[in-house]
Write a structure and sequence with these properties.
By secondary structure, this protein is of the alpha+beta class. It is 22% helix and 20% strand. The strands form 3 sheets. The protein has a 5-stranded mixed beta sheet. β5 (74-76) and β6 form a beta hairpin. The longest helix is centred in the N-terminal third of the chain and has 9 residues, at 27-35. Mean pLDDT is 85; it is low at 201-210.
Length: 210
């Protein structure tokens, strides 16, 4: 399926057969699963969940283009125009991945909202660094509770000291997130509101891998 590369990178939430969220994939992979009849589209409509096969989802495109055009991203091919689904359900998979949320730079920036945890100001990722709350020279480790975003200026001011030693205060205590923090950022977008119905903390214990 040929289309705009950017649209095919759009993120789609994947549910297992039991409607539990298991991962996030791009739209290209989602359409591949739909075309193989390994998955169905799940659409939240009027508070209810409606399932669509690939063919029925394609048939719904005419209505969607007329009444919900701005609510969707669109894939244009030589044969059809079809909306990118926001949620799909795997028809033959009912397991839960065991992975934990990965400790990496992207997830820490997402957890802290690209905000310096000392001065409280927002910066681009290029202007942020990672700071060890307890410096490594004092035995600090790489962990969710010891790494925070810091702007270059605050990081230089703090140096090899703890916040208390440097007379600086953290905006908030760093903690390990319960879900991939990048997903929490997407939930703030109206386009991903339908994801919330499937992100119940009662069963949500796995990482949404990207």
């Amino acid at each position: 399926m040929s289309s705009q590369a950017g649209v095919l990178d759009t993120k789609v939430l994947v549910l297992n057969r039991l409607y539990a969220a298991v991962r996030v994939i791009d739209a290209y992979r989602a359409f591949t699963l739909l075309a193989k009849e390994a998955a169905e589209v799940i659409s939240v409509e009027g508070g209810s969940w409606v399932g669509y096969s690939f063919d029925s989802w394609a048939q719904a495109a005419e209505y969607q283009r007329q009444y919900e055009h701005e609510a969707h991203d669109w894939v244009h091919t030589t044969r059809i125009v079809i909306a990118v689904p926001k949620v799909i359900r795997l028809l033959g998979y009912d397991r839960f991945p065991k992975e934990q949320v990965k400790l990496n730079r992207r997830n820490i920036y997402a957890r802290d909202g690209s905000r310096c945890q000392y001065c409280g100001k927002h910066f681009s990722t290029k202007e942020l660094t990672l700071d060890h709350v307890v410096p490594r020279v004092q035995g600090g480790e790489n962990s969710w509770t010891n790494l925070v975003c810091a702007c270059v200026r605050c990081n230089a001011r703090k140096g090899g000291r703890t916040p208390q030693q440097a007379s600086m205060r953290l905006v908030k205590v760093p903690v390990k997130p319960k879900r991939n923090p990048a997903i929490a950022l997407r939930l703030g977008s109206p386009r991903y509101q339908s994801w919330k119905a499937f992100l119940d903390e009662a069963y949500w214990t796995v990482e949404l891998s990207e």
